[in-house]
Amino acid sequence: MAESFPVKPKLKPTASKNTLTPESKYWKSFKVPKEIDAVSKSSLIPITSLSFSPVAPHDLAATQSTNVIRFPGKTLIPKSRIANFPDTAASASFRCDGQLLAAGDLRGGVHVFEAKPTSLSKLKDLRRLKGHAAAARLVRYPRASDKFHLFSGGDDSVVKYWDIAEEKCLFSLFGHKDYVRCGDASPVSDEMFVSGSYDHKIKLWDVRVSSVGSVMELNHEKPVESVIYLPSGGLIATAGGNFVKIWDVIGGGRLLYSMESHNKTVTALCMGKVLRGNVDDAEQNRIMSVSLDGYMKVFDYSKFKITHSMKFPEPLMSVAFSPDCSTRVIGTTKGTMYIGRRKAKAETENSSGDQFGFGAVVDEPQRKVLRPSHFRYFHRGQNQKPLEGDYLIKRQKKVKLAVYDKLLNKFRHKEALVAALNGKNPSNVVAVMEELVARKKLLKCVSNLDGVELGLLMGFLQKCSTMPRYAGLLTKLAKKVVEMRADDIRSSVEQRNHIRNLKRDVEEELRVQQSLLEVQGIISPMLRIAGRR
Q1: Which of 38, 330, 365, 465 has the greatest number of CB atoms lying within 10 Å of its CB?
Q2: Taking each helix axis from N to C terminus, what angle separates 493-532 and 468-484, rounded to the nearest 10 degrees?
Q3: What count of Cα atoms within 13 Å lies in the side-chain half-sphere of residue 369?
């Protein structure tokens, strides 16, 4: 027995499906923790830097105005505020063991204090390093194992290497000709670091050969706002203007890739990581960039492509990603912090087992699974849930047919067309017309319409012929109707009005299309030029 299927339009435009990639789902899984506000707002003063401790639980330090604010890694609720700075604080940096925290100020000082003070007396500086003649906007500890040195850079164009214990500057490194605003320590060597300046230059320093100046110089061609080492230690990423560039340091400073995806100045870079079990460790690393255009972009530098983009309502100033890949924090120029935390699988598993601190909960003995060898297996009710290995047979849904579908099944073509026209749903009318074209009955139906039915058809053609999705079929049909029913149209005032309105709508549509072609001619050269950049 033949089955009946409802008629569906074939000319329906296929909407582009914005299916999320696995990586986009990963970055969107960073949700706002329930224990804190969706947006942590303090004032309209920008958050100039963010830094996570390299040691668990990975506390967060943020510099804002004359304060360094510490957020415990577990709760991300502000715990302590260090306000010993005579001017605006900048560039907070944790020591490799997470015990000390250093930051600069706009008067040229570098302050060192305990990262987790246990009393108010310990909020005071342990060391205060003075040597910069202008604002110290760059402070970094070595990342490998050195606990006794740090380097700083200032608006006096000088990079300094400090002995913290003796509060003494060991080396003053000259070479920059403008403000030094960013830098990073090598992940593989405590003696090497990189600095970026507004003179468009990035300099690689090695304190073992400090007498010869920088060991390498790169030209970013824009004022450098941020520079970071990539985990291998052989590549660096720089940000300046709306460019992010990847450089091969081991290969002699060769430019590997230049990315221009932001519309405004890129203000900060940091390293992120995608946790996927079937991917090599090197392919999991990502570069995260934020910009004054309000976008955060994630860049896969192993494939040289952007894998995720996220829009925020304010210009972005700083970004940080926790070493355990659980937290992402973004600071803005208006003092807003956007905090996202990803719930690890281990947390969800352990939360049910040790919820009240009594240790692991012993599972209750499970019931025996019924098998086909037991007679009770065949007496299960209809409410029994299927098991994992069961084969499901779904009951077929009853097909609901519209009036015109039933008439088409009875080969009453003209009545089906009239029923669709009375329904006043353009997509259904076009679907019926397409079916009649396939059956080679459409023109015969048009020739058999009486005066009232012809009025319905002409009204539909006048209303929908200029719709782009239906124009291909309906304009040809309108031409055929005018040729076949010319006498009927001349004898009826109503039909002549439909023809007059149809002509007017077609002329208006042609004018619109002509204007769009002119606009396209203006824009297309600009798009070609933008594509070459």
Answers
A1: 330
A2: 150
A3: 8
